[in-house]
Write a structure and sequence with these properties.
This protein is an alpha/beta fold. The chain has 2 domains: 116 residues, Oxidized Rhodanese, domain 1 (3-Layer(aba) Sandwich), CATH 3.40.250; 134 residues, Glutaredoxin, CATH 3.40.30. The protein is 45% helix and 13% strand. The chain has 12 helices and 9 strands. Helix 2 packs across helix 6. About 12% of the residues have low confidence.
């Protein structure tokens, strides 16, 4: 009887331990299945404001200083491609907000190697909202030196336009100029020293001004130096010309009508037939100029 009683007790204890283990397993599994509730925001503006509490922002002035000093960083434009085409900060790489997290580590990122996790990344959009969210996402992906451009493209554009918009200047001083022909030729005949040479080589036209605010004069001087360095890299492959708006307003007004100049300094690109192929304006980076020339076959 004792043996039988012992076996009964043993079975009871085993059953108890099995029940405890089962309850523990179910309990742990239940905890693991629970999902944390997402943070709910009233609207997108509140969500952006919340993101900005965890990211670093820089001003347009700070970005311009980095560009002028030719510091090593990557500038990302997270707007849509059509927004980017309408105008962007020189040197920016366009990766739309919705694709950023997937493309940032792509080996073909912006036509270059994927950035190192410690690389300084400056992100901007139209007004700073999308880029704030993008900046936080990049921080979560380990890009610890990601920064948002406060105010985005709109603030950059207003900053450049202040005191140096060609269009605004022309409106302030109406000029009696002729509308250029539909054939987008480089410049009127009087500005072409050798028509034969112009037909054979691509050409760039730098438009600066010698009368403006100090910051604009500094940018024009830097642009002239950069363009000269680029031209010297391609002897016998490229011709160039410089126009000073303060001295040749009629001619610049004509070019404005034809090519919609916005900011100074500006750089126009033409192929060997004299056909307009694009422009850069504002801060002219050497890499951006070389990229444009490569599209013309100058490399």
């Amino acid at each position: 009887m004792e043996i039988k009683g012992g076996e009964t007790m043993k079975k009871s204890l085993m059953g108890l331990w099995f029940t405890i283990a089962l309850l523990f397993f179910i309990g742990c599994g239940g905890e693991g299945d629970k999902k944390s509730a997402p943070v709910v925001f009233k609207d997108a503006q509140v969500m952006v404001a919340d993101a900005k509490t965890r990211i670093t922002e820089i001003s347009v002035e700070e970005l311009r200083a980095k560009i002028d000093k030719e510091e090593d960083f990557i500038l990302l434009d997270v707007r849509e491609p059509d927004e980017f085409e309408e105008g962007h900060i020189p040197g920016a790489i366009n990766i739309p907000r919705g694709l950023l997290e997937f493309r940032i580590a792509n080996t073909e990122f912006g036509g270059m190697d994927a950035p190192d996790k410690g690389k300084e990344l400056i992100i901007y959009c139209k007004m700073g909202g999308r880029s704030a969210l993008a900046t936080e996402s990049l921080l979560k992906l380990g890009y610890k030196n990601s920064k948002n451009l406060a105010g985005g493209w709109e603030v950059w554009e207003k900053d450049i336009a202040s005191g140096e918009s060609v269009i605004d200047t022309l409106k302030a001083k109406p000029q009696d100029t002729k509308v250029a022909t539909n054939e987008k030729k480089v410049l009127p005949d009087k500005n072409i020293e050798s028509k034969e040479e112009q037909k054979q080589l691509p050409k760039i036209v730098l438009i600066i001004t010698s009368q403006a605010c100090e910051c604009t004069l500094e940018r024009c001087a830097k642009a002239e130096k950069t363009v000269n360095e680029v031209v010297q890299q391609f002897p016998q492959k490229l011709t160039s010309e410089k126009l000073d708006y303060a001295k040749e307003q009629d001619l610049v007004a004509q070019l404005d009508k034809e090519y919609q100049l916005r900011f100074l300094p500006a750089l126009l690109f033409f192929d060997e037939q004299g056909t307009f192929k694009g422009k850069l304006d504002g801060s002219l980076g050497k890499g951006e100029i070389e990229k444009k020339l490569k599209e013309l076959g100058v490399e």
